[in-house]
Here is the input.
Amino acid sequence: MWTRRHLLTLADFSREDYHTVFHTALSFQEILRRRNPKVPALQGKVVANLFFESSTRTRSSFELAAKRLSADVLNFSPGTSSLSKGETIVDTARTLLAMGLDILVVRHAQAGVPALLAADIDQHHPGVRVLNAGDGQHQHPTQALLDVFTLAVNHSGSLEGLAGVKIAIVGDILHSRVARSNIQALTTLGAEVHLAGPPTLVPADFREWGVQVHWQLEPALSQARFVMALRLQQERMQSHFLPSLREYHQFYGLTLERLQSCDPQVQVLHPGPVNRGVELASEVLESPCCLVNQQVSHGVAVRMAVLYLLGGGPKETHLEEA
Ligand code: NCD
Here is the structure.
């Protein structure tokens, strides 16, 4: 039973919540394969995308997901808005809410902004839902949900099948909201999570999250069924965490040769945007073991699922073709 009002974090997500999203996304994936891949589930509702930080795939994916559910979509661009005239984010959101929104999808460089807006909305517009599309280094729930979906369908087809599976997450964990949301999702589902990267970017404290921490690549990759590479998020680095990108690639970059110590069926994920030749060699990106494009297409079905669940779910709506 889905009872959440907002989707702000995976920290309190239960196994049942993951199952609900997974099975809803599977049915939307089915719908997306139809000749007319559109359903009236959110007809008459308004989904507003408030992206205060740059994004290509997450924003387009939310927009397409909302349109496939027949919602009206409002895209807000902070660069050309009254924010540049000194209006606060809460006041900007209130202005948009006065026009009658149902779901706010929020991305911000500062951790906690989606939760702040949700608290204000709970007081003034209790029917409106907030979805976190990435806040600072904190959380990126829909990215982890689509990653889990991709892992499950490529392994055994079920979430139960991820229990005990070795998954290596490699790169800039410290600055990564994707890593934090994924660690929470994967440990809840019983996967064996190994982190690897330079000590400046993979603090030992992460052991408290129920994962293994390595400062060398080999022990993390050894027999791993999946490897998830993360971008070096230089825009969030406040000092010099790395000698050079070339040196990073030499020690931690994923090449086909390095992947040979993994499980023979190893598959590679990356949330994008990829810095070719830094975290992933081009040959890995072009290889059949690379799931990056699958992640992007699964993103639409998974975002349809969460928009649908937050927007009313099975009670009010049905899934016939529009
Ligand atoms: C990530 C993000 O923005 O957190 N990308 C994404 O949403 N697909 C990861 C990143 O920026 O490296």
